[in-house]
Amino acid sequence: MCTPKQTGQPPTSLYLQNRLPLIAKPFIELPLGEVRPEGWLKEQLLKMKDGMTGHLDSLYPQVMGPRNGWLGGDGDVWERGPYWIDGLLPLAYILDDDSLKAKVQPWVEWVLQSQDSAGYFGPSEDREPEEGLQRNNARDWWPKMVVLKFMKQYYEATNDERVIPFMLNYFRYQLKELPETPLNHWTRWGHYRGGDNLMVVYWLYNLTGEKFLLELGDLITEQTMDWTTAFEEREMLSSLFSVHCVNLAQGMKQPVIRYQTTGDERHIEAIRQGYKDLMRTHGWPIGVYGGDELLHTGNPTQGSELCTTVELMFSLEKMIEITGSVEWADWLERVSFNALPTQISDDFDARQYYQQLNQVEVSRTPRNFVTCYHGTDQLFGLLTGYPCCTSNLHQGWPKFTRHLWYASDDNGLAALYYSPCVVTAKVGQGTLVKIEEKTDYPFDETIRFRIDIPDKATESVEFPLYLRIPGWCEEAELRVNGEPLGNKAGGEMERISRVWKSGDEVELVLPMKVTVSRWYEGSAVVERGPLVYALKMEEKWVKVPDDHKFGTRYGNWYYEVHSSSPWNYCLKEESIREENIASEFQVVKKGMNGYPWNSVNAPIEIKTKGKRLPEWQKYNGSAGPLPYSVQYQAETLPEEEITLIPYGCTTLRITEFPVTRK
């Protein structure tokens, strides 16, 4: 794998590299706002602005309004307000939108002004319970970790000089207080999620060089769950109900964050082992896992929480930065392009707490989930299921956008996963360059990069450009100004170092072929490139008033989604043999036609043949137990043509198909 060398901080580093004794990162986070979305991704972020993300203060006023404790009010004092700002803030600065920035600023100002002489900040008073609000554990360490994340982003976007002394004072407070009131003193969440705290401590150390921050990092690590050992011992990820799904998504990055101090490859290998165990026992082909809310097998009718998706995405973004690993970038694309878009409505007015792989209706029906919230957890709504996802989902696409590009530690730039965007950043000895990335990826195979030097007095600049070749791609084609550089193997990082001029173009072609993988009960899953494909079904969305049987906790309305389309199809064993896939699965490229993430506008279809399996019927609103594959005695109906579309474009679907020999 071709990545920059890991040494001490380069003396000419253009961006914030690790200070010694932390090991140097191969890739470095760019300041917030240097990557701007284009194409379908820009449309996605604008939908967030016009939908929940930009209006949660009016849509969810009881929590996000002026009573919020993080605005000085007597209402909610815990994680939900900070969660919202952790996504709203990067959205505001990536879009450079003044109206969104104006919504962020009061939260930032109150946080800064709340700090006392000891260094403590935030709400401090617990109050009596009130329906729909979290008014206790005001001094808990965990929600402050979320605030630290958004204050870090705020500083990177604005260079507001107040942030650094604010954080130094708080971290001195932590160093003094944690021995007596550890991370799990008020709630257990800080114990599991301490890696988020550690991440900001190391970031501040790189800015200031304050040695006490390294001591604090050791203390936080002692009080955080030992994820490295848990992954090494293997029992946790090989067991049922052993860990909370979101804790696991956040905990994935903790060993890598700590690795910066120790340099011990044990941390990296532990995560690799953990990933293998997780996918084998609870994993889904879309990159997440059965966890509703505790780990609950890879059964395609179990649930996966939306918070899991966005937290796992952020963990992977940090893991890629620190290790330069192609495998984590592959994993990130799989989660981002499959799990994320399906779980939020097109207008960004509703979200689904749990998604199912085989999801044949969305209805208010108790399902076989660990935590089912009176049957509301699979509905699309503002507050159905549990409100944490309403608050936390907003970080997914903005942070994905920000991390489409990194600086490299040899003063180049790296595109480690792909979407339409423009990056403007410094390279070489500090020359500003602009790279426009034109593509319809992940639906299309071709990505084009155009390089420009905004300073017209500068004719050329020498720097390395890193491009990831995904592991699913057997062989990529790479050209510079039309000249082939040869075919490149998948699973590698390609480094192109040369003198670049304005107008230079790089073309990367990642041929996508249809493949079939095997999952729960031997079922078959159809894939092409980074996308998983699922059965296209008719979708009838119905808005239903909530009956308020359980008060107002689930909101005033929700969406159910039903279909009269048949769904109980199986694939033929002969069709999914490797030598037959090309002839049995026909790819139809429809092109981009509006917002792509729905069944109407899906840019790609795959046509194939399936057979209905009459004995496979609904059970409690879900597809019944998945028949074991290969079925060789069950009766099937005559074969017929079926259409598959990208999983992220579906709401109702079959993703894991039984296989029949008849």
Describe this structure in words.
The structure is a single chain. With 662 residues, this protein is an alpha+beta fold. Helix content is 32%, strand content 21%. It contains 19 helices and 28 strands. Strands 17, 18, 19, 22, 23, 24, 27 and 28 form an 8-stranded mixed β-sheet that branches. A hairpin with a 3-residue loop joins strand 9 (421-427) and strand 10 (431-439). Helix 4 (80-95) runs parallel beside helix 6 (141-158) and helix 11 packs across helix 14.
What is the overall number of helices?
Answer: 19
Global Rg:
24 Å
CA distance, first residue to last residue: 45 Å
Runs in which pLDDT lies below 50 for 5 or more consecutive residues are 1-11
The outline comes out as: globular
Biggest sheet: strands, sense, closure?
Answer: 8 strands, mixed
Report the structural category: alpha+beta
Q: Please give the share of residues in helix.
A: 25-40%
- DSSP, total strands: 28
**Average pLDDT figure:** 96
- Percent range for β-strand residues: 15-25%
Provide a concise account of the structure shown.
With 662 residues, the chain is α+β, with helices and mostly antiparallel strands. The strands form six sheets. Strands 17, 18, 19, 22, 23, 24, 27 and 28 form an eight-stranded mixed beta sheet that branches. Strands 2-9-10-11-16-13-14 form a seven-stranded antiparallel beta sheet.
